[in-house]
Automatic annotation (TrEMBL):
Gene3D superfamilies: 3.30.70.270, 3.40.1170.60, 5' to 3' exonuclease, C-terminal subdomain, DNA polymerase, Y-family, little finger domain. SUPFAM superfamilies: DNA/RNA polymerases, Lesion bypass DNA polymerase (Y-family), little finger domain. It comes from Stephania japonica. Belongs to the DNA polymerase type-Y family. Residues 460-473, 530-557, 603-616 have a biased composition (Polar residues). Its EC number is 2.7.7.7. It catalyses: DNA(n) + a 2'-deoxyribonucleoside 5'-triphosphate = DNA(n+1) + diphosphate. PROSITE patterns: UMUC. This is DNA polymerase eta. Keywords: DNA damage, DNA repair, Magnesium, Metal-binding, Nucleotidyltransferase, Nucleus, Transferase. Pfam families: IMS, IMS_C, POLH-Rev1_HhH. Residues 617-637 have a biased composition (Basic and acidic residues).
Amino acid sequence: MPVARPEPSDARVIALIDMDCFYVQVEQRRQPQLRGLPTAVVQYNSWKGGGLIAISYEARKYGVNRSMRGDEAKKLCPEIQLVQVPVARGKADLNLYRNAGSEVVAILARKGRCERASIDEVYLDLTDVAEAMLSENPPEKLEAIDEETLKSHILGLDEEVDKQKGELAREWLCRSNASQQDKLLACGAIIVAELRMQVLRETEFTCSAGIAHNKMLAKLASSMNKPSQQTVVPSSAVKGMLDPLPIKKMKQLGGKLGSSLQSDLGISTVGDLLKFSEEKLQEHYGTNTGTWLWNIARGISGDEVEGRLLPKSHGCGKNFAGPQALKTLASVESWLKDLCEELSERLQSDLDQNKRVAHTLTLHATIYKTNDTDQLKKFPSKSCPLRYGTPKLQEDALKLFNSGLREVLDLQRADIQGTSKSAWVVTHLSVSAGKILAKPSGTHSILRFFHSHESSSSSKEQTYNGIDQNSVPSGGENQVVVNEVEANKKTTINNYVNSSSIQGEQQKETSYHKDTNSILRFFHNRDPSCPSQEQTYNEISQNSMPSVPSGSENQMAADQAEAKKGTMISHVKSNLARGETQKETTQKGSGPILRFFQAQRAPCTSSENAVPSTSGTEHEQESDRVSAHEESQKEKVEINDNMNSLHHDEHRRKRWSLNPEEIDTSVIDELPPEIQREIRVWLQPIKRAKAAQRGPSIADYFSPAKKGPQSHNS
Ligand code: TTP
């Protein structure tokens, strides 16, 4: 459900960076001989040449598109190079692409608040850095604007006048009489062009970008001029940009809501939507959605760039088309095992590297009832609290599947094993882990608090061991506590940040020449046949844009952790000492680039053909659009004044690190009696409330479908 958020009163500068034909670029970096050639990445199965999932811009010129299979693409473009995705556990292994995406995110995060929106898309809030540039080094005072910025497409400028395009852009960027909003966007354009060059220098990947005053407009603009170009959306151009857009192209209008607008109100473009008053839209779609529709028709969107460098969820899935369809529980179980094994590895690595814990396991499937003339029956997505460890994930995923299957087949629990082999077939299975939050620090914080405040705590080691033995829980969500305690053995709050992979990436920042050379020159310089690469870099570096402050970013994560630690301790202190909670919020193509790619074909390439074989019949499709289809709703935890309820607040940042649910009650025995009493009073209502809501154990989530979750009295 879309959420109507008003635009903040101060102008923001938001960019969406979108990698060009991403998987292809990753493969071309691995196999440089493919650069400049029409190339496509295909699913690892090679039935009819494999399904195309990423297509280079050279291949697109031949009409090759994503709906085709390799064989069809070869007919259109006989020289197309088909590269298969890597395979692990009998399915596509996307780690290569995920890691490549992380490289890009680590670079972009140096400049502003950064939200990883999908495997190859990143939102950036550049407001602060653009404001700083405007006050210190406004574009109108710059001696030179770099080539990449001058290639920006500025919506509303007459781009037909090709000869003057660079000049038109320069005039627009450097106008001294421009509005403050436009001046900020001009700074944004300069900053983004430099960032894109930086990404290219460090990763060899090109990307495109949209630069606007909000996320929605930046996203729409980012794909308007690809590859390797950027598009700026001044406020004056918003209407012209939105009016002709088909309604279904708008985010969140691709599905039922968009269809309803078309069928119920005859709206097919965003311009049509403008004809309806806010009241009328509210009448049809409710207050919030009505206002949201009214806003987006006018380019208004207050959605914030969430500071999130890591994916919101982890998912592993597989399609089983045609003869590969799964027909038995045993085959489903076997695949779920593989999927869960992969999921488990990714969860563990997220926990180890980023100190993040996933809380919800979800299973999706697509199933056909074969005894009903092959009818597709919607398999209900099933979720339960997530337990760490491969066997537990496997066990829970299977239970979720069985529970969904019973629903699809209208069966009671006992009947599940008896279903005839031919009663159903499964064509898709996926497991995902969501609700990923920072590793709970409740138990740990309390202990640390008392250790650091009571001189009598002479035996820390002993206390830790005591906790380890006493706190092993049985319920699903309590598993988090086990993980935490285990993790606490190895780590302390003080080294929390040091192990962050993102920080690691930032620390390995290589020294680069702060230049604004064009992408064309970059690639020429990368060409090993071109002499004196170093020399050329140095020459180019003279031509640098004014630098936007950087370098403090590495410190940022450490500062945040310090601040977090301080906040946490002070909360614990005040809560425990005073016994009260605080309510705390807390193609058109760029000429030089195309010329470059053409120039890349001949020299410096190996004749070796590294394209893997495409034989076989398996048919699989897997997409890892990290959070691409998720609505960005950040969960926040708040503890109210009476300490009686726990609820999610979607509008404020989570600043509380201490979640009463995560406190292992065995720890309380370690505390002085008067504090024990206070804490128990504090915890009981919350625990009871949650227990009543969800049931005490994972078993409740697998009750027969039509039976609601049982309620339990503690
Ligand atoms: P996209 O950003 O949609 O496309 P792209 O990067 O290949 O090309 P463009 O330059 O037009 O943005 O997707 C990013 C990657 O995600 C893509 O390279 C491959 C993968 N992907 C799939 O695996 N399956 C899909 O259905 C889509 C759309 C993408």
